[in-house]
């Protein structure tokens, strides 16, 4: 298995080796993965962050030497916590916009430049402050991001991608899909007891988990539904004030981050 890294804003990961296949997730800039199998067109990969598997365009693979791969895989890297920043590839001068959740391992104490393979990069403009941002601050910074099935970035995001990226930036690793995330944490008995950062899960008529959102407290929830938006949450579910209807039926609220 070859260690590789995303050197793009994101790499689309598909369910099957076909451009017509559904998008299941994205590999953000600086996230590492291994190649499980490969032909001329497609490669089946496994992400190091959450173990997710899928197919990517083989041309997007950037293989790394083992020592560099282990460095990027295991280092507590600097994390993009704002919706997006720009980096510049030295030599070509190409500007790449990378989204929240992207990872950078800087060159020593230089907090502006880094290298991947033989390519050097630097941050365009002032590097964003690396102050600790809470769940609410990170989540609300992504308001109005369009919904995209399989997305986990500023350019388009789905419900479980939103919760995963917000938690990632806050130092907590959770799985990719909503039904997997529901297996974590402890139950919150009443909606009124929900705190900022608790995850609320919603099911369909068959009892399958189909949606997740992040509780903001005071009966509010932020979630990706059409776009990243804030709606009301009660014991029945999510109430959409635009339609004056409930959009999702509440199954359970889980506390992932202990008090």
UniProtKB/TrEMBL annotation:
Domain NlpC/P60, first and last residues per copy: 128-257
Pfam families noted in UniProt: NLPC_P60, SH3_16
Keywords per UniProt: Hydrolase, Protease, Thiol protease
InterPro entries listed in its UniProt record: NLP_P60_dom (IPR000064), Papain-like_cys_pep_sf (IPR038765), Peptidase_C40 (IPR051202), SH3-like_bac-type (IPR003646), SH3_16 (IPR041382)
Example GO BP: proteolysis
Domain named SH3b: residues: 1-65
Domain of life: Bacteria
Alphabetized GO MF terms: cysteine-type peptidase activity
UniProt family annotation: Belongs to the peptidase C40 family.
Name under which the protein is recorded: Gamma-D-glutamyl-L-lysine endopeptidase
């Amino acid at each position: 298995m070859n260690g590789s890294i995303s050197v793009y804003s994101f790499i689309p990961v598909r369910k099957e080796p076909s451009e017509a296949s559904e998008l299941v997730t994205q590999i953000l800039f600086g996230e590492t993965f291994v190649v499980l199998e490969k032909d001329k067109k497609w490669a089946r990969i496994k992400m190091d962050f959450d173990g997710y598997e899928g197919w990517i365009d083989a041309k997007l693979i950037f293989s790394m030497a083992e020592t560099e791969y282990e460095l990027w895989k295991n280092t507590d890297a600097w994390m993009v916590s704002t919706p997006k920043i720009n980096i510049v590839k030295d030599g070509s001068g190409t500007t790449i916009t990378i989204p929240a959740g992207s990872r950078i391992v800087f060159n020593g104490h230089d907090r502006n430049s880094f290298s991947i393979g033989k390519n050097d990069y630097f941050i365009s403009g002032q590097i964003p402050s690396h102050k600790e941002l809470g769940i609410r601050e990170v989540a609300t910074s992504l308001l109005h991001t369009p919904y995209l099935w399989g997305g986990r970035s500023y350019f388009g995001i789905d419900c479980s991608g939103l919760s995963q990226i917000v938690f990632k930036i806050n130092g907590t690793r959770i799985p990719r899909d909503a039904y997997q995330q529901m297996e974590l944490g402890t139950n919150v008995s009443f909606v009124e007891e929900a705190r900022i950062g608790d995850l609320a899960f919603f099911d369909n008529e068959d009892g399958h988990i189909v949606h997740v959102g992040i509780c903001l407290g005071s009966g509010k929830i932020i979630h990706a539904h059409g776009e990243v938006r804030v709606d009301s949450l009660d014991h029945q579910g999510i109430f959409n004030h635009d339609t004056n209807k409930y959009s999702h039926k509440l199954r359970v609220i889980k506390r992932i981050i202990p008090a």
